[in-house]
């Protein structure tokens, strides 16, 4: 499965923040994460064991924003998870 918005990646990109959509048992779930742009990033799913366990239910992998600075990517991921209250939400794997 390809990343949506893969064309956001530029030669200066060092990391990106992404959202994974999972459809399981007629419900939609999400996961927010960040990924360093190295190695086999195109086939990357997540470091989360829960996402890996449900990888067959992934319907979309979307790049939300790219960063030339890793710390900025980590901060954006943290802020987005807090803004969405993803840790407490039943619709997020975070």
How would you summarize what this structure contains?
This protein is of the alpha+beta class and 94 residues long.
Which consecutive residue ranges, at least 5 long each, have pLDDT under 50?
A: none
Order of helices and strands: EEEHEH
Q: What would you report as the Rg, rounded to the nearest angstrom?
A: 13 Å
The overall average pLDDT, rounded, is: 96
Please report the number of helical segments.
Answer: 2
Structural class designation: alpha+beta
Biggest sheet strand order reads: 1-4-2-3
Quick one: biggest sheet?
A: 4 strands, mixed
How many strand units? 4
Shape: globular
Helix share, percent: 10-25%
Instruction: Work out the strand percent.
Output: 25-35%
Q: Span between N and C termini?
A: 21 Å
Fold topology:
Blueprint: E1 3-4, E2 15-24, E3 27-36, H1 49-53, E4 58-67, H2 70-83
Parallel strand pairs: 1-4
Antiparallel strand pairs: 2-3, 2-4
Task: Explain what you see.
With 94 residues, the protein is of the alpha+beta class. Helices cover 20% and strands 34% of the residues. It has 2 helices and 4 strands. A 4-stranded mixed β-sheet has the order 1-4-2-3.
Which tags fit this structure?
single chain, 94 residues, alpha+beta, four-stranded mixed sheet, 2 helices, 20% helix
């Amino acid at each position: 499965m390809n990343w949506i918005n893969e064309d956001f990646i530029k030669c200066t990109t060092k990391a990106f923040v992404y959202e994974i959509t999972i459809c399981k048992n007629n419900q939609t779930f999400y996961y927010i994460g960040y990924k360093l742009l190295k190695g086999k990033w195109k086939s990357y799913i997540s470091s989360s064991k829960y996402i890996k366990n449900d990888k067959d239910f992934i319907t979309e992998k979307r790049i939300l924003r790219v960063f030339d600075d890793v710390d900025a990517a980590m901060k954006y991921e943290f802020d987005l998870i807090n803004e969405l209250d993803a840790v407490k939400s039943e619709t997020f794997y975070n």
